[in-house]
Every structure is written in C-alpha cells, then in structure tokens.
Fold these 3 entries.
Entry 1:
Amino acid sequence: MNDFQAPASSRWPYSIRALRHRNFRLYFIGHAISTLGTWVQMVALSWLVYRLTGSAALLGITTCASLLPQLLVGPIAGAWIDRHDKRRLLLFTQTLLGIQALLLALLTYSGHIGANLIVIMSLALGVLNAVDTPLRQSLLSRFVDKVEDLPNALALNATLFTCSRFVGPPLAGLLIGMVDEAGCFALNALSYAALIFGLLAVRMSAGVRANGTMGNIFREGLAYALQTPSVRGLILGVLVVNVSASSYAVLLPVFARDIFSGDARTLGWLWGAAGFGSLLSTLLLAGRQSAEQLQRLIILTAAFSAIALLVFAASTHLALSLVAMAVLGFGVTINNVGTNILLQGQAPEVLRGRVVSIYTSTRFGFDAIGGLIAGQLAARFGGPWAMQIAGTFLLIYCAWQLISQRITARQSAQANDRATR
C-alpha cells in the first residue's frame, strides 16, 4: 500500500474503480490535459512537415526519429528507472518535454524551422519519451493501493490517450487554421504544467528500488522477458502489430491530401476516426476481462486490423475510410493496451520498470521502424501500395498464430488423453 494514501471510497462504479484512489485521480486529471496537448502537437507537426516539403519519405523519417530512441534507449532506461525515485524522475522528464514543445513553437513562429531542425527536434522528443513513457507506465501501480485495481488503472490511462486521440486531431485541424502550427506547439508546452502540478500534489513513498550495477539490473530484466514464454510471445505480437498496422499514422497526410483532396481538417477527421475506435477498445478493456479472454481478443483484433488496412488502402470514399480507420484504431489499441495489462499483471514489482520499458521500446521502436518503411514504400510506390503491403504482412502473421494455437491445443489435448489412460 502507498504509505501516505488515504483510504479510498468504494462507491465508484466498477468500470472506473481505479479513480477511487486519490493519487491516481491527481495523475489522471493532469495526464488528460497533457495528452490532449501531445496529440495536437503530433498532428500539427505531421501537417507542417508535409506542407513544407510534400515528402512522404520525410514523414516517415520524422516519425522514426521521434520513436526509434524508445527501441534503443528504452530497455536501458528501464534499468535506470528501477534504481531511482520514479515520481521525481517523472517531474524532471515532464519539465524537459514542456521545454522541447516551447522551443519547437518558437522556431516555427520565427520561421527558422526546416526539415533538418524538425528531425532534430523529433529526435530530442524521442529520447525524452524513451524515459518518460515506461516511467509513467511503471508508476501506475504506485498510484493505486490495491493490486486488483491495476488493470483498471492501465485501461483508464489508455482511455485518456484514446479520448485525446479522438478529440485532439480534429481540434488540431481547427487550431492549425486559427493559430497555425506554432500556436499548437505552444499550447502543448503549456499542457505539461497540469501533470507537473498533479505530481507535486501526490503523496507517496519512494517505493522499492533495484540494487546492483546498471549492467546487472538490465540483464536481469532482459532475461526475465526472454526466458518467460508468455512474456516473449506477447512482446512478439506487439512487434508485428506495430511494425505493420501502426504505420498508417505516417501515411495519413498522404491520403488526406492526395487521395481525398483534403486539408488539415481532413487529416484531423482520419485521426479522429482511429481515435474513436481506440476509445471503444479501452472502454471494453476497462470492464472485467480474464487473461484467457484477453489473449484471444488480442489475436482476433489483430486480424481485424489487417483487414482494415487492406480496405483503407483500396478505398477512395472518405466515409468508408473513416470506418476502416475506426476498426484499425480499435484493433491496434486492444493489442497494445491488452498486452500491457497482461505483462504488468504478472511482472514482479521490482522488475516492473524494466518489463514496461521492454514493452514500450518494442511498441514505439517498431512503430518507428514500420513508419520509416511505410514512408519509403509510399515515396516509391504510393500510399495505397504501402498500406496494402503492411496489411498483407499482418494478415499472414495472424494466420500463422491461429494455426500455431490450434496445433498447440491439439497436442495438449492428446497429451492429456495419454495421461488419463
């Protein structure tokens, strides 16, 4: 139990039960405002890149620069996180993220921004997020004083992300026309203050810290992930889904302008449709789900995501494409959030920072690699072809997983029959 957390009321509805914990409520409110600002900046930056350069390849490079550090730095950051006071570290990273957004706003407003500076600023954002993302995820278990409320806290935390993903992109589309991209970046810089104030009001002890050298702590976490079959399988699924299905994010400006002859508002609606699907998925995950049900749901919705990619790639009708985006957002989020719930549910407290960092580095790192590949394919063959390739790859993986599961189930049944004879 958190040493300084007051007893929680049990009158909260079951689907939002984690909000009965004071520390989680403070985090939840601050993070809600901060995440909305993050989505506004993300859409504004992608539109700025394509407006200035018209390059699909640069969209992929920029996305890769903002996400790839999580693959390279994330696992090491997890070992560092487990050695320190997580709340103080989060205050520090949130402050630096606010400074990064403010600097981006000033460069854009002054007219000094260009392709090289955009990549550099995206890289700086990626390095900060490589520490900030697993840090926030691993702290969630400290914000609730009952372990049975952790899955709900993780689902509600994801709901913040998906609600912002639903509201933020259309809002960004409006703001870009009203205050331009620099104004969007400045608003994001201001939004970080909400979470900083929330963290300052949290009352909790420093928590358990890992002992030993950085190398030994890192190897201990890596060995746990590689030698635990269930963890290894979940990480593989996150890798495949994010290198394929999540690549749609890079290509949306291409479809908005070139396929649908739209503007920033069209881009906002496409992002918003994906966000709506993600929101539905987190509402589903906030309810009661057993581990077995969640594992089946993850592979099923991955197949839905593959089909949605193929439909979106072939569609020239905005309404159909919005539906495909909603299905895609639903499937990708079920996979990512569901995997996070399963991993944190079985990870020991002292290993949680490292397990979460391996998960987030895989999720965002291979999202970056997928975005880079998608951008290069789109530059060479066009956006629809790039998305068709991603959808086909994911569909093949899902078929392989389903066949493997049936073979494993059949072998297990045969072994049980022999044991009972």
Entry 2:
Amino acid sequence: MSLQVLVTGANGFVGKAVSRALLQRGDRVVGAVRRAQTAADGVREWLLDTKDFEGIDQRWPVGFNCDAVIHLAARVHLMHETETDPLAAYRATNVEGALRVAAAARRAGARRFVFVSSIKAVGERSLGRPISETDEPAPSDPYGISKLEAERALLDYGRASGLEIVIVRPPLVYGPGVRANFLQLMNAIARGIPLPLGAIAARRSLVFVDNLADALVHCATDPRAAGETFHVTDGRDLSVPELARALATQLHAPVRLVPVPAGVLRLAGRLTGRSAQIDRLIGELRLDSSHIRERLNWYPPHTVEHGLLETAAWYRSTH
C-alpha cells in the first residue's frame, strides 16, 4: 500500500536518497525545502522557509493528509561556530522545531514519525566495544546534546499523543554528494598528498547513504519499528588506513600513508587547536547495529565496496 510521506530536508544529501527510495516503492513524497526546485525528481515540493518550523500549521499544504514523516532537517554540527549561545541555537531547531513538525503532522493524520538523530547523541567514541542502543548517552557537544534532548522530547510527545516515534542514529554518512571531512579525504588522496594515518588502528562505523535511506524507509513503514531506537551501519567497520586504501583504489590514485603515532597526531592537534578534528579522525567509533537486523530483519542492501565505488565514481565525474 502506497503512503503519503513528508520528508523534511528533502533537498539535502540524505533527503534526496530517502525521497528516491520512497518513490521507487510507489509512495507519494512531499518534500519540505527552503529553496524551490532543489528536491529529487518526482517529489512534490513544499516551500517552507520558516525559522525552526514556526507557523508550520498555518502553512500546511491544503488536503495533504500525511501517513508518515521522515524528519531530516536539522541544525547540523558546525566546525566553526558563530553563535554566542550554540546550545540555544541547536535546541531551537533540533528540539523545538522537531516537536512542531511532529505535532503538525499528527494533526494531519500521521501515524509514524521517524527522527534522524546522530550517534553524537550518545558520544564521540567507543571504548573497546561497539556502542549499542542501550548504552547510557553522554553527548559531548551542543549538537549531540540537542539531538538527545530531541529524542527524549519526541518519545514523550509520542506517548502522550499516540504518534509512533522511531529514532535512527547514523554514524558518518557517505555517498555521491558527500561533503565535509569525507570529501577532504578524497581530495587529498586524489591529489596524492601524503597522509599521516598509516599507524592508526582504530576502526569507525560508516553508512552508505543508500543503505541509510533503505533503513529509514523500513522505519517509516514496518509496524515493528514503532517506539524503537536503531543504530544503522554498513555492517563492516574500516580502519582509517583501510578506508584510505579502498578510496585510492576506486579513485585510481596512489595512496601515501605515513605511519605517524597517534600520540604525535594528538599533540599536533592540541598545538594547532584542532584536537576535536584529530580525535574524530583517529579515535574508535564503532556502532552495534544488530538491533535493527533482529527487530526488522533489515540488512544493508549495498556493501561497503559498492558504496565506495559509487562515491568515487561521483567524485571523478565532478572534480
């Protein structure tokens, strides 16, 4: 049975992949976007250029009875923060904004609300074993704190209103169109720049954007997902050198990995004020994604190798 699904942030990196996955199922997709003609082909755009979804009820499309929402729109983690009170800014969008969308959708008949959170709601690293959904959250920055607060506020709202809430916490998402650190890594490899990562043994979980989109569609449509929290990964964790070598192969570029000890890199991070970036690069962050497999019988449809091949092909065609 086809559904009417609202996707917020539909013109983003993940939003376009989710929209395509829903359309392939035969669902009807309304995409909330800030700029016209930016969503995937086949998406009915809803131009909603409001701050933190204020007044969403008054702007709700006439006749749009929504079955489910996949809420991707967020104030994302920023490397160079400009707000004097970052936590308040994150809360305004990621907590209050999400609650406004949930309440408006519920009034429009929605039964299911999938909230795309982040593993940062739990923490920045794993210590010897993968992080599971039952581990005690300890977010370390305003973005992570706001995502955890949003999860808890939405679950409370769901209990009070009857709206089925599903929480999904992805790690780093990659794929065609990826930006930020992953794109910088590909740039460096493509240019043959030596990377001081040869001695880094820590592994990190990743998720290919089409794997995440497939999981989100399952979370929006499977009755067994109601009320659950899921960690979603590719199911295979790579070390940074393994990732760099795999990307180099797909980019047809030489990989130059220099074995610099982790302690030296951390010292360099402290001296240059880039400790957070270095820690993210060399620290372990593995997720246990067995719960979604056991609960929904969901398995990633694409391998890591396929995801990296698609990402490298996109990079070669655009750079």
Entry 3:
Amino acid sequence: MENLALIDSFSEFKDDKLIDRVTLMAILEDVFRNALKKKYGSDDNFDIIINPDKGDMEIWRNRVVVADGEVEDPNQEISLSEARKIEKDFEVGEDVSEEVKLIQLGRRAILALRQNLISKIHEHDNTNLYKQFKDIIGDIYTAEVHHVRPKAVILVDDEGNEIVLPKENQIPSDFFRKGDNVRGIIENVELKGNKPQIIMSRTSEKFLEKLFEQEIPEVADGLITVKKVVRIPGEKAKVAVDSYDDRIDPVGACVGMKGSRIHGIVRELGNENIDVINYTTNTQLYISRALSPAKVSSIKIDENTHRADVFLKLEEVSKAIGRGGHNIKLAGLLTGYELDVIREGSPAEDEDVELTEFSDEIDEWIIAEFAKIGLDTARSVLNQDVNDLVRRTDLEEETILEVMRILKEEFES
C-alpha cells in the first residue's frame, strides 16, 4: 500500500469526526512516529512531510555515511557502498536522506497504523467532548430523545453527542417519547473508561435558576438577582429574588402581568407551583415571606439553634404547612431555619377546625380516610363512635384513638 492510498483511507475519519486538517495531520505524524520507533528503535533521524493540500505524505530517513564494515547502528549509519547505490558520489561523513515507503514497514505494521489512528482520533474526540461539556456544567442544554429506558432517557444533540437523563433527575410528571426535545441543565460529565458520559438534570435547583435567567430579561441583565432557589421537583418551589434598583419590583418583574412571565417556567416544570418572594436580610420578615401564602402573627427566633417558633391563627395554619407539608419544608430550606408552627388561641365550643389543619400531626392518608365518609372537621370525628369508625373506614382502632386524642388536646388546650 502506497503512502497516498493510506492517506486516502484515513480521510473518512476526518469527514465523520469533523476533525480540522491540522489536528488530523498532527495525529497522523504521531501515529507514524510510533510505528517508526517500533520498526527502527528510534524516530529521531526521520523527517515526516505531510502535505494537507494534496493529502499525501513522505517519510525520509537520515543517516551518516561510514566506511564499509564500521556500521554500528544501521538506523543512524549507512555503509559507503550502500550509500553509493543511492548516489555514486557519496563520501564518508556525508548525510544520506532516503525515502521510506510504507510497504517497508510490513503489512502488520500498516494494519496496526490504522488501528492506532482510530484509537488516537477517538481519544481526541473524547478529550474535546469532555472539555466542551465540562465548560457548560450548570447551563441549560436541549437535546432530542433517542430512546427511553426504565432507568434513564438517552438523548442526542445536534452533533450526535449522547446525553443521559437518569430517572432520578426527571420531574415525576415527565413523560417522553422518541423525537421529543428536552431541556435541562448539564449536571455533570463523568469519564466511563475513556468515554465521557454527559449527565442532564431537570430536578436541580440550578435548572430553575437558569430558567429565570432565560425567561426574565431583568434577571439575564443582572437587574434582578436570584438569591436562592429551593424545590420539591414537580410539586412546589420557592425563589428568593432581590434588586439593587429601588425602582424595580423584583417579584412583579419575575411573575409578570397575570403570571405571564412565570407561566412558561411553570409549564416547563410540569406545573410546579412557584412562589417568588422578596429577599431581605431581616430574618423575621424573610421567614414571614417564605411562609406565604400564610399570614404570620409573630415569630420567635433562637439564633443559637437556628430554630424559629412561628405563631399563626388557626385559619392560617394549613396554609403555612401546605399540601403534604411542602410549604413549611421549603420555607425552612429557603431561610435556613427549622420552623415550628404554634397555633394561637383555642376555638370556642361552637367552633370547629378543618382536619387538614392537623396535617403536621396526622398523616394525610388518614385524613383522607375520614374525608371518604364525609368527616372533614375535628368535631365531626369526635362526635363519632370508635367502633362505628372502625367499621366504616380502613383504619385500625388504635389509629382512630390516637387521632381522637390529638383532636381533643386541641380543644382542651
């Protein structure tokens, strides 16, 4: 196989991998030098000339002419008689340059050259791919669903790069079909052997923060700062925002007229409920805002333990806790305080309390069992016979007695 033919066979890699010509030639030279080292022991005295315009190459070996019988290193030296077969007027001490044809390396060496080239090009691609995605960790990226697996969705971008969206990084309501475009952030790039694995996430707080940057011009321009984001993916999120310009209402700018600006973000996150609040260094005010939509009566803060007792009227308790306890949990994560709800006052004899207001003490599924038979307030449960409740619900007697104890304490306190 001639040099030109071998170069032609390599062109497919350049076309497939979109490697620039200079890089391809550098890889070619490196591969050929390795082959020369194996064949001759050293490549120091070889010149490799690659012509990228013509797509061909030449290999020249340089040796010093020595007297017949005095050759010690056949790779570095050539006898006078051998040199004169190349040019008749060579003399001892002169330099001889002789072209080396690939066929002289042997058939096995040529096959090894090709394999080595493939390996080097893949290594180059993987290194570039790793650097490329390492630089955009934390940025939003869009790719197309290639196929859906039980534990992950495999995506492919416009350049054919494979991206993995693990199940745990998907919003619970996410449902993907082949061909769908998916947005998320590049969470990490991991090396699996020599091949980089690109990991995407849609559950990261960073994804929501970047969506704010992408969808809200004032955030993108730096006029509004996203101070902190906390999420229960697909359920609820709280975002604290601030502005150094007193003329800008950061919450209003983020939400938009009738929620127009934030609507796209909510839709992207599977209708995740997003509370946007004004950030402040006033801890009491910050906690009060974080518990929105509940109206807080007062707050008692213990800085040593980072706990806060939050006093609320009875009708505000369920709002502060939220469905499944999400609101109070996120408020605690946002502010960095462990929040304890304290109910103010006690209901009069003729007053009643919704069972949902006890969701911090009674499991939601138990409250749901009572609701199935039309019991949705504390007094409606207390007025029932225990045995009758056991018969009408799927609850154990022990569970019902415990619920009644909690409800009675509310009215007795």
